[in-house]
Prior knowledge:
Blueprint: E1 2-3, E2 6-9, H1 17-39, E3 61-66, E4 70-76, E5 80-86, H2 92-98, H3 104-110, H4 114-127, E6 139-144, E7 147-152, E8 155-164, E9 167-173, E10 178-179, E11 182-185
Parallel strand pairs: 1-10, 2-11
Antiparallel strand pairs: 2-4, 3-4, 5-9, 6-7, 7-8, 8-9
Amino acid sequence: MAVYPVIFKTDIQHLDRKLQNESLSRLARSAVQESAKQLGVTVSKFHKTPEGQPMAENGIFWSLSHKKSFVIGVACDQRVGIDCEELKPRSEGLLKAIAVPEEHPLFRQRNISVVELFSAKEAVLKAYGSGIKDLRNCRLIAEKGAWLVFEFAENTSLVQQTQIEDHVFSIACSNEMQITWMQQLAP
């Protein structure tokens, strides 16, 4: 199975804060729809549970994320989570807040930044409908080629990442699949 995370670069800095948020939300949903189109399916309703978790539509799961400069969306036939974070220096205190000591050797060996680890964990948590309160319960346990392997709630998730400019993008899924990152012009 292939999956197509779609990334749009945004140009919304000139808008007021309320319009920025509305624009980012609309663009992220458009990215999900473009990802679904690549699979030959549609996602149009964007329903969520009362807790805010995206609900699958006709067996198609979806996830989205946005920052001021980028939005990303994905559709997939299995649980999926996506995240986007700006790569900027963070304190060691963030590492202590999001990772347990058993993760540190692999984290350091892999030479990933705290922001990349945060983004990977956030993608896993989104795939399972959880929130950042569970960052320390989502554990980096291995790497497998281009994939980081995490355990969360007795499930194993695989995360792949890419970087564009000063942002990292992470996708989490339960099985290895062909990831085709698609950067496009925003509609």
